[in-house]
Inverse folding.
């Protein structure tokens, strides 16, 4: 936004806790209830690109005061979707700077009398200003995170209301993630080029759903849930915040916890402090996929706001998984049992829609994750949609939840504030999800300098201060003995491309290198270690024997070398997980190292398996069978896995 020179974002619904970091309030996932309505504004909007050398023109000329079509020729643009791949024009794909969206909507009369009306965006990348009927209602910076505004006083009955959104994709040295913009001569004059070091396409636009929703005038603004387990008993500690005029009445909440079947298993009536604990006998804990026959068990927490005069002033429901997390120098435990994480780094990415929310894609991806026997993934390199977090809860998939900091460098106060803000917003959004088992505060930050040392100390401590119930990690890639951030983390994650960027073609150097590096990280920090990225670009259908880089054979062999290293490391105790890079092929900026994008997926971009996917499936179900007594393996894998088991127990060399 430096081009546009917008002021620091302090969105509606955000107050300052100290001079730097805004504290998010509200933003509960919009759910219908007896007291709330949700209306989607998804669909086709009108869209205009600004002139890259005149990005403030629309603001100066107040394009938000009336339909965009009155000032410019608009094109239809789907919401949610990235705008980049919708057209046939490289100018749209590579646009740098601002774009405008608008559409109109009606509201029913009773909304104005009885309700508060809200507008909520699941995410707009990278930052946004929103006007309703020509009045600015919210500004928000940092993609992949939701924001909202109350618009009760901005909407009208008896007229089609206008909503206008300005979105800017410009990344600078003080944005999260960072980028830079430079001017380059072209055949026709000059142009602005956006550069960034991270390895995924800087898709932009209204990426997730836009909804109007209503709450009562006095409403449940926020709910925080923490859970505990002791023997067969579970506890759910809840805390509710309300907003609005309480009058002279004493306000309290009635809370019911319902089983999956809908039966009330615990109830509580709070005092005026609106918090309390529900005790659940014979609890069904939330377990990761394949760790228990009934994995991903969720209760339904039903909160009803009442006062002495009126019941059910507002009702909000939230799914709750009861589980505990614990970690020490050598293990990571869930419900007291050691966990070995097996999964992926991923991207929100697909053909045409880019990073736009796509429920068909999310559903397919979770089906593939379960097909392959994974139990975890990292939301590399930014927060994923709220809908996918709900899927993870339901399916028992553990999430390492990453903020949008990638390749962080040039550390300064402005960057630190924004980095902290991205973590604050992420934790606010995701703290109630049982699937979230770790916070990742960065991917491949440049951590060799002293300034990185104090920067990451602050970021890690800030994260812990907001949520001490989950460990803090970061996907590191500096050499272990040069890195200055690892000591501030609870769990060490490291990315390394043995046999690819390092010693390409040398499949015979992988096992030793992976083991040596993991051991060094552990020796230096005495903390659990996991490998958060390894892999090889692979063109689906390219077969070369003996294995040669870019072929399916090479990816599969590189994986099996890593598996051997991981099996050796698992025996020493503190090695707690393996994550393939990447789940699926994805789009990047143009470069001669990328054939139509990054091809390290084990699935193609349209989610078809490469040979390595079948191998990984055997690996992940094999691990499951070895580590979890209740693991059910698919019948087509039975023979292979029983043989592997036999092999594992008879070969114990380190
Ligand atoms: C790692 C990055 C990841 C890249 C990957 C690669 O964390 O974002 O996509 O390398 O180059 O360094 O494939």
């Amino acid at each position: 936004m430096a081009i546009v020179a917008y002021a620091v974002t302090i969105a509606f619904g955000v107050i300052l806790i100290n001079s730097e970091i805004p504290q998010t309030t509200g933003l509960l996932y919009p759910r219908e209830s007896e007291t709330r309505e949700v209306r989607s504004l998804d669909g086709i909007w009108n869209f205009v690109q600004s002139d890259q050398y005149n990005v403030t023109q629309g603001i100066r000329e107040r394009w938000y005061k009336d339909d965009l079509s009155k000032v410019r020729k608009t094109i239809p643009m789907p919401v949610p979707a990235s705008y980049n791949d919708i057209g046939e024009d490289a100018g749209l794909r590579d646009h740098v700077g601002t774009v405008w969206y608008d559409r109109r909507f009606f509201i029913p009369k009773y909304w104005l009398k009885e309700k508060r009306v809200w507008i909520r965006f699941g995410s707009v990348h990278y930052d946004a200003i929103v006007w309703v009927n020509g009045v600015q209602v919210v500004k928000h910076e940092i993609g992949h995170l939701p924001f909202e505004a109350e618009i009760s006083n901005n909407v009208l009955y008896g007229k089609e209301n206008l909503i206008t959104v300005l979105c800017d994709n410009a990344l600078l040295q003080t944005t999260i993630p960072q980028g830079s913009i430079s001017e380059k001569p072209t055949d026709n004059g000059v142009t602005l080029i956006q550069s960034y070091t991270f390895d995924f396409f800087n898709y932009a636009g209204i990426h997730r759903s836009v909804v109007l929703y209503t709450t009562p005038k006095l409403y449940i603004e926020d709910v925080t849930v923490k859970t505990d387990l002791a023997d067969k008993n579970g506890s759910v500690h809840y805390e509710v915040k309300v907003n609005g005029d309480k009058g002279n009445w004493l306000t309290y909440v009635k809370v019911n916890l319902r089983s999956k079947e809908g039966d009330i298993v615990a109830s509580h009536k709070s005092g005026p402090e609106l918090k309390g604990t529900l005790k659940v006998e014979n609890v069904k804990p939330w377990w990761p996929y394949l760790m228990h026959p009934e994995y991903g068990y969720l209760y339904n927490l039903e909160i009803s706001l009442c006062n002495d005069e009126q019941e059910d002033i507002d009702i909000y429901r939230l799914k709750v998984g009861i589980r505990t997390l614990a970690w020490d120098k050598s293990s990571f435990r869930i419900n007291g049992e050691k966990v070995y994480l097996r999964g992926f780094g991923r991207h929100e990415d697909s053909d045409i829609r880019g990073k736009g929310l796509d429920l068909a894609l999310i559903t397919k991806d979770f089906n593939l994750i379960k097909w392959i026997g994974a139990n975890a993934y990292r939301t590399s390199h930014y927060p994923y949609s709220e809908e996918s977090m709900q899927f993870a809860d339901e399916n028992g998939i553990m999430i390492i939840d990453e903020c949008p900091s990638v390749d962080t460098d040039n550390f300064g106060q402005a960057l630190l504030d924004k980095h902290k803000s991205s973590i604050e917003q992420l934790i606010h959004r995701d703290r109630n999800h049982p699937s979230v088992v770790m916070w990742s505060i960065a991917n491949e930050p440049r951590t060799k300098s002293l300034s990185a040392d104090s920067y990451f100390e602050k970021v890690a401590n800030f994260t812990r201060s907001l949520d001490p119930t989950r460990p803090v990690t970061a996907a590191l890639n500096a050499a272990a003995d040069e890195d200055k951030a690892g000591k501030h983390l609870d769990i060490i994650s490291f990315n390394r491309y043995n046999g690819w960027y390092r010693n390409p073609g040398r499949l015979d150097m992988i096992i030793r290198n992976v083991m040596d590096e993991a051991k060094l990280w552990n020796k230096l920090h005495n903390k659990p270690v996991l490998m958060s990225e390894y892999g090889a670009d692979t063109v689906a259908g390219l077969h070369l024997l003996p294995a040669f880089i870019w072929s399916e054979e090479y990816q599969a062999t590189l994986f099996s070398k890593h598996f051997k290293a991981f099996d050796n490391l698992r025996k020493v105790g503190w090695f707690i997980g393996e994550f393939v890079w990447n789940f699926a092929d994805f789009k990047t900026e143009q470069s001669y190292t990328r054939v139509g994008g990054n091809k390290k997926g084990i699935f193609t971009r349209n989610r078809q398996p490469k040979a390595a996917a079948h191998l990984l499936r055997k690996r992940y179900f094999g691990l499951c069978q070895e580590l979890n007594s209740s693991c059910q393996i698919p019948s087509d894998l039975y023979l292979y896995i029983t043989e592997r088991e036999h092999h594992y127990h008879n070969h114990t060399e380190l």
In short: The pocket of beta-D-glucopyranuronic acid is lined by residues 199, 443-444, 477, 495, 533, 581, 598, 600 (CB under 6 Å). The chain has two domains: 38-215, 326-649. Residues 326-649 form a domain with the TIM Barrel fold (CATH 3.20.20.80).
